[in-house]
């Protein structure tokens, strides 16, 4: 789609020329791949766990209304307030409304991809509410005025060296720190006052547990706990596909999610938030709001149900040859990589995002590593078919394919066409290679092409040759 | 498992195999077709090369043009459905027929059934030789070091991984070298490599570096499309690695690598 940074191809080209981006992506995704591989190798029967995880999600989705209602009942009983939002606008409005009633000037926020998806950062800014991102990577990109480029490591496009400069420029002490620990300490120091001063804390959710009405967050830095506990009001924004039947199911999925994301057995914090502070509790928010967001999910239930299993682990990004080269921003939507290419057409429409499902080699690595067995290549191929049917592909391509298929379905004509075309192509060859192909310059911009055979295989068979 | 004609006793009639050469082999590298022919015969098959074959329709399918893809799929089904097996020297064309034809005709029960029947007897060449025929080449030697790139469709859609290595292990003098990222896509992706040529180039550049880093004399694989991509990049980058389809080596026909025209 076209953003302020131009079309997908423009953005991809820019990314490909960015050396720092390459270093950052190689480091982050390379590490992630090595660690995930080790975690999977250490798991006695990963494929069975994967099938079980997919079944857990499919079960919840097959009984979507039942479990959502059960969740709502139990959450209400625990003292939570539930807000249903059909789309991004309603979701943001619900959050802003709660903030206004709480007379909030500052809202801390722990990382939530749903928040990005619904445009919550902009909505808060428009409402005049100061937003403080508390996840380290989100803090970095907030300082840089950027959006996340990875769903697990939002600052995957930035190197340590970059961050060091950014902190020197923006942090109160203006120190040039090079050690990671010192940088983390600086961020912690910077955020401390806001953790305790914010009136509202906003988080996402990894799971909505129907049997208890609790929401589960899985984090590493402890910032989520500091975002959701000290402020008087805690707001959760969650896509309705986060629903699972039981705590047991949530934990089973957690095992796969964390290993697939970082290769660790568990994150530092796995927290179940159930209702506001009760009489006698030592801490916790006085108000606990859960905004349940549809934003295309019920449409996906019809059109792309497999994608609703996604637990946002990021494994498909780390293993995608395209993502690894162009990074997340080139995709132009809230979600990048294979899962983003499948989701963005739902959120932003197919026509403006039609490049995303096409910019993929369909090599199947994403499907292989997905912990809930989402057939991403099939979903992307389906988008291509839809784009073709709806007439979004260029007339030249459509005519070209139709003509080629027509010729290829008439074997004699096809043979005659090859007998004509191949000698012409051969004439461009020198020492067995063609350095510039007609019609498909894309190939020979960066590769040579071997000179075609004098006579096709079938022509040689026909004339009884054995080469 | 598939029946093994070898194990059933020598008197069993040889299976009738239709060789689907694939459009790229037909146009660009007939030697792979001849290698397949020889290997299949050596493995005790009665092989025929149907004259009416053209292309499996994969470029249309992957471009979302289902109507054109169906047109070509129908043709392949008609040509090959009476053979005992359809064998192709390409993981991606074999996967197109075996896995994607039935999907393509999902709304047409009669065609879907025919597609499924053909799909069940469609094989990628190297896995057919190793798994179905229990074949090992005999008396082939090649004094060289080689590295193998697992082409994605064969690997992930058809489970082709151990078979080419088992076959190549029977070649005398051939030293196989593992490659970093041997299961990582080379950036070919059919029309992808021309539509998004700059991204494709970045991917194949990394692949070429990994190939060169093995120090192997030869790069082998089981899909001409991917091999063309890597060979073209290696050549442009000035590397001296010679590129062959594994079948050419197995058939003892690895004289001229891709781009080394027969004098
Ligand atoms: S599609 Fe699968 S691999 Fe990708 S983020 Fe979702 S769950 Fe993870």
TrEMBL record, chain A:
Keywords: 4Fe-4S, Electron transport, Iron, Iron-sulfur, Metal-binding, Repeat, Transport. Residues 402-457 form the Lactate utilization protein B C-terminal domain. Coiled coil: none annotated. The keyword Ribonucleoprotein does not apply. Residues 68-293 form the LUD domain. It holds the Pfam family LutB_C. One of its GO terms (molecular function) is 4 iron, 4 sulfur cluster binding. SUPFAM superfamilies: alpha-helical ferredoxin, NagB/RpiA/CoA transferase-like. Residues 307-374 form the 4Fe-4S ferredoxin-type domain. The keyword Zinc does not apply. It comes from the Bacteria. One of its GO terms (biological process) is lactate metabolic process. InterPro entries: 4Fe4S_Fe-S-bd, FTHF_cligase-like_sf, Helical_ferredxn, LUD_dom, LutB/LldF, LutB_C, NagB/RpiA_transferase-like. This is L-lactate dehydrogenase complex protein LldF. It comes from Rhodoblastus acidophilus.
UniProtKB/TrEMBL annotation, chain B:
It comes from the Bacteria. Coiled coil: none annotated. GO terms for cellular component: cytosol. GO terms for molecular function: oxidoreductase activity. Residues 17-98, 147-230 form the Cysteine-rich domain. This is L-lactate dehydrogenase complex protein LldE. It comes from Rhodoblastus acidophilus (Rhodopseudomonas acidophila).
């Amino acid at each position: 789609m076209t953003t302020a940074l131009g079309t997908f191809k423009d953005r991809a080209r820019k990314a490909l020329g960015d050396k720092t981006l390459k270093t950052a992506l190689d480091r982050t995704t390379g590490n992630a791949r090595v660690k995930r591989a080790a975690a999977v190798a250490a798991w006695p029967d990963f494929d069975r766990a994967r099938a079980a995880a997919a079944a857990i999600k499919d079960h919840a989705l097959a009984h979507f209304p039942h479990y959502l209602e059960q969740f709502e009942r139990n959450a209400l009983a625990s003292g939570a307030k539930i807000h249903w939002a059909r789309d991004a606008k309603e979701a943001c409005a619900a959050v802003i409304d709660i903030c206004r009633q709480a007379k909030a000037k500052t809202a801390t926020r722990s990382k939530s991809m749903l928040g990005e998806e619904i445009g919550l950062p902009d909505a808060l800014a428009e409402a005049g509410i100061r937003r403080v991102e508390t996840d380290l990577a989100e803090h970095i990109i907030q300082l840089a005025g950027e959006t996340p480029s990875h769903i697990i490591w939002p600052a995957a496009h930035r190197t340590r060296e970059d961050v060091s400069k950014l902190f020197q420029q923006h942090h109160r002490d203006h120190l040039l720190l090079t050690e990671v620990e010192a940088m983390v300490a600086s961020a912690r120091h910077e955020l401390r006052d806001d953790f305790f001063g914010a009136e509202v804390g906003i988080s996402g959710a990894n799971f909505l547990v129907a049997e208890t009405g609790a929401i589960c967050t899985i984090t590493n830095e402890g910032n989520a706990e500091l975002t959701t506990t000290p402020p008087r009001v805690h707001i959760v924004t969650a896509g309705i596909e986060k629903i699972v039947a039981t705590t047991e199911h949530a934990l089973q999925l957690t095992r796969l999610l964390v290993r697939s994301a970082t290769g660790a057995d568990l994150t530092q914090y796995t927290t179940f938030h159930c209702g506001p502070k009760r009489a006698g509790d030592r801490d916790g928010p006085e108000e606990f709001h859960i905004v349940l967001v549809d934003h295309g999910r019920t449409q996906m239930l019809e059109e792309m149900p497999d994608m609703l299993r996604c637990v946002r682990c990021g494994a498909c990004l780390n293993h995608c040859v395209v993502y690894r080269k162009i990074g997340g921003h080139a995709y132009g939507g809230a979600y990048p990589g294979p899962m983003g290419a499948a989701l963005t057409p739902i959120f932003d429409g197919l026509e403006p995002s039609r490049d995303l499902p096409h910019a993929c080699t369909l090599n199947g690595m994403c499907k292989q590593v997905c912990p809930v067995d989402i057939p991403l290549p099939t979903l992307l191929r389906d988008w291509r078919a839809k784009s073709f049917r709806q007439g979004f592909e260029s007339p030249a391509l459509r005519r070209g394919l139709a003509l080629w298929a027509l010729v290829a379905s008439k074997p004699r004509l096809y043979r005659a066409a090859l007998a004509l075309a191949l000698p012409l192509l051969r004439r461009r060859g020198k020492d067995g290679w063609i350095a510039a192909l007609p019609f498909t310059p894309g190939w020979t911009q960066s590769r040579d092409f071997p000179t075609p055979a004098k006579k096709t295989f079938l022509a040689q068979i026909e004339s009884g040759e054995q080469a | 498992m598939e029946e093994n004609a070898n194990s059933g006793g020598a008197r069993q009639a040889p299976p009738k195999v239709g060789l689907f050469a694939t459009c790229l082999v037909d146009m660009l590298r007939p030697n792979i077709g001849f290698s397949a022919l020889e290997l299949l015969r050596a493995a005790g098959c009665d092989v025929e090369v149907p004259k009416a074959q053209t292309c499996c329709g994969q470029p249309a399918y992957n471009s979302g043009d289902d109507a054109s893809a169906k047109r070509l799929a129908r043709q392949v089904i008609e040509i090959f459905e009476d053979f005992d097996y359809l064998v192709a020297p390409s993981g991606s064309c074999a996967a197109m027929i075996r896995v994607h034809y039935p999907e393509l005709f999902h709304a047409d029960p009669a065609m879907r059934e025919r597609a499924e029947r053909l799909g069940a007897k469609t094989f990628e060449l190297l896995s057919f030789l190793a798994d179905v025929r229990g074949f090992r080449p005999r008396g082939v030697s090649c004094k060289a070091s080689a590295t193998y790139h697992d082409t994605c469709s064969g690997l992930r859609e058809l489970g082709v991984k151990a078979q080419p290595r088992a076959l190549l292990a029977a070649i005398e003098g051939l030293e196989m070298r593992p490659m970093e990222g041997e299961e990582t896509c080379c950036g070919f992706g059919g029309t992808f490599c021309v539509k998004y040529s700059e991204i494709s180039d970045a991917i194949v550049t990394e692949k070429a570096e990994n190939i060169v880093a093995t120090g192997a004399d030869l790069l082998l694989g089981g899909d001409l499309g991917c091999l063309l991509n890597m060979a073209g990049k290696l050549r442009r980058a000035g590397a001296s690695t010679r590129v062959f389809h594994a079948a050419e080596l197995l058939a003892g026909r690895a004289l001229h690598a891709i781009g080394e025209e027969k004098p």
